[in-house]
From TrEMBL:
Component of the lipopolysaccharide transport and assembly complex. Interacts with LptE and LptA. This is LPS-assembly protein LptD. Keywords: Cell outer membrane, Membrane, Signal. It comes from Pseudidiomarina taiwanensis. It comes from the Bacteria. The lineage of its organism: Bacteria, Pseudomonadati, Pseudomonadota, Gammaproteobacteria, Alteromonadales. Residues 1-26 form the signal peptide.
Length: 764
């Protein structure tokens, strides 16, 4: 027997088995290190308060011990250690008052109060036993705490192996407080390293000490990695649906794909099945969504309601790529009745298309299938089945750029399949550009030829095989001016960019051509400098006009833009006679509306934006959209907005809106919006939500009132006339540490009828 001094005892013991490795993640951390903060809750106190000091010159695979006293029995090869015993083996450290190490078997036994850590889990227990044959350590009467995610609890027996933590008669929670908001107790809890998830058998979920759920089997994440299992439900109630319950089940199918299946029970309508599938590859990604309600009990007819959506993009090679985006609904009211993450309740149409693109140095091509579905009782739209575009461009002699665009499209009426149209378009173009630091200008000369084969009944005024040839000339020039100036104690850079554009195109009678993909585009500031007033090719407007405009901006010395002003107007030398369906789209004035944009970054938190279209002859605003916003951070913002539109479907629209999110305390958040129709003196959309959240759970209450759009019945715009309203509320519990949807309240505002938009990105 060898005795050592009272201060320290050192012994190097060659282990007969590999030392234990950390389950879930090998993160060696000393007790003196600060634990990771867990959100709004207090930082959990580490079980091991003493510092971890590695034993010097400890060879790999050896067991190192320091203690006050050591005894070694040379016959049994058992070493006994007493007083402030610290045992180190691999990444594991054991603190105790008395321990025995068997040098032949590698077994370790410690009695009395022990502290153990492997860098991932810290355990305080009544004793410790390492069985080298099983390569597993056993601790009884254990209190444990995981350093990576703050999970903690108690266990009658806690056992550790190379890739697993197993708890018998255990509790589990991610709340670090003395009285946790939620806790799980189970006969057995297993946490595996490779999959980073936990399994519980015969588990009870307690909220504030009250058992609320029993599950014979439960799996749950113990890290940010994905794991199959139930997510927490959402509870709602509304006038149209009655009581609602959603219970999503998440499927982690592979590292690059997952799915969520969500039964949605609605007391007044029935049970809907919703599903989502996502995948990701090196060259692309895709997502499929599906919803189906077999029999809507709220309708007199036994009508099934459904939707499906597919989005997929793929990069096949450096030159070839494809994209698909399709959304199909059973009826026009589906989005209004059930909502969707992919279409807003205020949307008037659904757009779906699939296309294949080719891009090379000089040649680009696109093959596309396109479809518009107008929601409500409107004129049936046409599908493109398909459309082929080819563009060839380059630079020739004398610095002239050339471009040849050609298109072949076949249209089909959505409601009358015999109404088919073939369109061929050819458009060569020459352009010349000059760019200097102080100015730039560009001249374009093009000639377009379009021919149609209209196979439908021609009683609607369309010609059988019309064609159209149109030359076009466009010149656009800009000055680029700038100056520095000082205002107060700051230096600013102001830029001024006046620009002028002349556009000429003769008139051609196009009344014999049907309308297949053309509509009137916006006359905002940028729109006034477009070459065409209509989208598509069915109408190309005649023009003899000049557009004059200017933009000025102010930026700090750090190139941060703080203000921008833009204003423009078109002056017509000759009125444009080209129109769509009626004379409302023809030009009858000498000047266009005055289009202006204003952007202000008033301070780090305040911003202002306004877009305006003003009729100079009638002296009235035709369209405007203005917003003022205070935004401290995503949890604190306030916005007030105003929107105005004159003569929209023979009626005016004027609305005011307010949106706000306020962090009342670190735990409490309040959010709401309110949109008021000034013309009709009614609230179109209102929402109030209150959320409590801390590091381990959250509870959200939501109350809403919104206009109910009966698109199947309304003949005109769905927000006019005498509407119905839907009132309801929702309750959502989110448990952190067992998997949940933990989106912020700003996401809730974005899903409302009109949605949240940052002032610098307002849609016109």
């Amino acid at each position: 027997m060898v005795k050592t001094g009272r201060k320290h005892a050192w012994l190097a013991v060659v282990a007969l088995v590999s030392p234990l490795t950390s389950p879930v993640m090998a993160n060696s951390a000393g007790a003196a290190e600060e634990p990771i903060a867990t959100g709004l809750c207090p930082i959990p106190q580490a079980l091991i308060q003493r510092p971890l000091e590695p034993i010097a010159n400890l060879q790999e695979g050896a067991i190192g011990v320091r203690s006050s006293r050591a005894d070694i029995d040379s016959e049994t090869q058992i070493a006994s250690f007493f007083g402030d015993v610290e045992v180190q083996f691999g990444q594991q450290t054991l603190f105790t008052e008395q321990a025995q190490v068997n040098q032949l078997s590698g077994n370790i036994n410690a009695s009395g109060e022990t502290l153990f850590t492997d860098g991932y889990v810290e355990v305080a227990s009544e004793n410790f036993r390492l069985n080298s044959g099983e390569n597993r350590a056993y601790l009884s009467g254990a209190t444990y705490q995981m350093r990576t995610n703050g999970a903690r609890g108690e266990a009658d027996i806690l056992s550790l192996s190379e890739a697993q933590v197993r708890l018998e008669g255990a509790t589990f929670t991610t709340c670090p407080t003395e009285n946790p908001a939620w806790r799980m107790s189970a006969e057995q809890i297993t946490i595996n390293e490779d999959e980073a998830f936990g399994e519980a058998r015969h588990a009870k979920i307690e909220l504030f000490g009250v058992p609320v759920l029993y599950l014979p089997y439960l799996n749950f994440p113990v890290s940010d990695e994905r794991k199959s299992g139930f997510l927490f439900p959402t509870v709602r109630s509304s006038q149209r649906h009655g009581f609602e319950l959603e219970l999503p089940y998440y499927l982690n199918l592979a590292n690059n794909m997952d799915a969520t299946i969500t039964p949605r029970y609605m007391a007044k309508r029935g049970t809907m099945l919703q599903a989502e599938y996502r995948y990701l590859s090196e060259a692309g990604n895709g997502q499929v969504n599906f919803g189906y309600l077999n029999d809507d009990a709220s309708l007199e007819s036994e009508q099934s309601r459904f939707f499906w959506r597919l989005e997929q993009q793929q990069q096949w090679s450096p030159n070839w790529r494809s994209y698909i985006n399709a959304l199909v609904i059973s009826d026009d009211d589906y989005i209004n009745d059930f909502g969707s993450d992919f279409a807003g309740r205020a949307d008037a149409q659904l757009y779906r298309h699939a296309q294949l693109d080719y891009h090379a140095d000089a040649l680009s091509a696109m093959l596309r299938i396109e479809d518009f579905e107008l929601l409500g009782s409107y004129r049936a739209a046409y599908r493109t089945l398909p459309q082929l575009n080819l563009t060839y461009q380059g630079t020739g002699e004398l610095g002239l750029d050339y471009r040849v665009y050609t298109e072949l499209t076949r249209f089909q009426n959505q409601e009358l399949s015999s109404d088919t149209v073939t369109r061929f378009h050819l458009e060569p173009e020459l352009s010349y550009q000059v760019e200097r630091p102080a100015y730039d200008w560009e001249a374009n000369l093009s000639y377009s030829y379009t021919r149609y084969q209209q196979d439908a009944n021609l009683l609607d005024g369309r010609s059988e095989d019309p064609d159209r040839a149109l030359p076009s000339f466009r010149w656009r020039g800009r000055l680029n001016l700038e100056r520095q100036f000082t205002w107060g104690e700051r230096t600013y850079l102001q830029t001024l960019q006046p620009q002028i554009q002349y556009l000429y195109r003769p008139y051609r009678d196009q009344s014999g051509i049907g309308i297949y993909d053309s509509t009137l585009m916006q006359d905002d500031y940028r729109g006034l400098f477009r070459e065409r007033r209509f989208s598509g090719l069915d109408r190309i407007a005649d023009a003899n006009q000049v557009t004059i405009g200017a933009t000025t901006s102010f930026a700090t010395a750090q190139a941060r833009e703080v203000a921008r002003f833009s204003i423009a107007q078109i002056h017509y030398f000759k009125e444009s006679r080209t129109q769509l369906f009626d004379s409302s789209s023809a030009i009858l004035n000498n000047n266009s509306d005055l289009a202006a944009e204003v952007r202000f970054q008033l301070s780090d938190n305040w911003s202002f934006a306004s877009d305006l279209q003003y009729d100079m002859e009638l002296n009235r605003t035709q369209k405007s959209q203005t917003a003022l916003e205070y935004r401290k951070d995503p949890n604190n913002l306030f916005q007030i907005s105003h929107r105005n539109a004159i003569n929209l479907l023979d009626d005016d629209i004027e609305q005011i809106g307010m949106q706000a999110i306020a962090e009342l305390t670190p735990q409490w958040q309040l959010a709401g919006n309110w949109y008021y129709d000034i013309e009709n003196r009614r609230t179109n959309d209102a929402l109030l939500a209150l959320q409590y959240s801390d590091c381990c759970w959250a509870l959200r209450f939501g109350f809403y009132r919104r206009i109910n759009r009966n698109l199947e019945l309304q003949q005109n715009t769905p927000l006019l006339g005498t509407p119905e309203f839907d009132n309801g509320f929702s309750v959502q519990l989110m448990i952190k540490g067992l998997g949940s949807d933990n989106r912020s309240l700003i996401d809730l505002l974005e899903q409302s009828l009109f949605g949240y938009r940052h002032p610098f990105h307002l849609s016109n």
